[in-house]
Amino acid sequence: MLWEVEELKKLSEIQPEVVEDGLKALWDKKPILHKKVVINAYIDGKVNLGKAAELLEMSRLELERELKEKGVPVRHLTAGDVAAEVEAIKEW
Fold first, then answer.
1. Domain-by-domain residue ranges, the chain?
2. Is the separation of the CB atoms in 49 and 63 below 8 Å?
3. Strand, helix or coil at 75?
């Protein structure tokens, strides 16, 4: 399976829309997998809490509560996070 993931990564650089469509179909079919991937990305610091909540179509507070219930440490917002959330609210 590792080679498949590596090939998907390469394909995403050439044809990102193909991989995005495939992932969307996978996430729609396996929402629990999507949630685990997003939460792992949050734990690894690849996305902030606000972005993770957005990707999971939850409010930031709902996700924070759920993470705390599962024992996942919740990082405090940085100034950059606050600015990004303000911009997201303005765009919304």
1. 2-91
2. yes
3. coil
